[in-house]
Amino acid sequence: MQNNPDWQTIHLNTGEQTVIPELQEKVAHKELDRFFSGLAAAVRPILLLDYDGTLAAFRVDRFTSRPYSGIREALTRIQRQGRTRMAIITGRPANEIAPLLGLDPPLEVWGLHGAERLYPDGRRQLERAPAATEARLEELRQHLRRDALGGLFEDKANGVVMHWRGKPRKAAERIERRARELFEPLANLEGLALLDFEAGIELRVGRNKGGAAAAILAEESPASPVAFLGDDLSDEAAFRVVRQLGDRGLSALVRPKWRQTDAEVWLRPPREVVSFLLCWGKTEETAR
Ligand SMILES: [Mg+2]
Fold this sequence. Notes:
Strand 4 (116-118) and strand 5 form a beta hairpin. The chain has helices at 5-11, 22-41, 71-81, 97-101, 131-146, 169-186, 209-218, 236-243, 271-287; strands at 46-49, 85-89, 108-111, 116-118, 124-126, 152-156, 159-163, 192-197, 200-205, 226-230, 249-254, 265-267. 39% of the residues lie in helices and 19% in strands.
């Protein structure tokens, strides 16, 4: 970024990057320039963040996924300035985030991909499906408790998840096929939908991440700059919502390797994410 020396370290340091087309990289520079100049003038910017893969590395034991070094400090700085509305939008149950992130006070968290809202004061809202749908979902839960199809069954308040991360390819394909056979017929029931993500599938009730982002935006001024950072396929819905905002929106794919995405820019974790958040905090300080 021309105006911000920190930005140079993020996007000009892309020598080994060959996957992303050169044109797209130029667009990314322009997007970031534009976004950060808008941010400096904003009354109440909005910063929306996924957790796993975006602020923290994946761990087999998900309860040990601490944020990357430097993330907590950068977020604390933005939090203390008190201008930005920050929220985490995660696939996890919302109450898992505060102990891992370690911010005081805790951030607002939209859990279960957006179906659950946990306010910083502890109030919690959860979307539900019609009773008949909930009953069918419960039958499926019981089935998967007896037979996890060779994968990892995760029982969530608003749905069921089948994971095949780390399985050999053949086994993964078998698990996916069996899970789809069970999940797809139920996805037609009122209130239920399928959600694909990397190495897993979820049958679930409620908003997706795009719906969560839209719900947050609806509570704020239509002039507020908004950024959303995420890594997974389930983040694409939120990328699209933010991208539709035009100049005041910035959607960023956080991933070691670029992939096809609706996000406008690409940040590699952890360094570029930390730099992005530091830029955010700095912009806020200069804006005072
Ligand atoms: Mg993620």
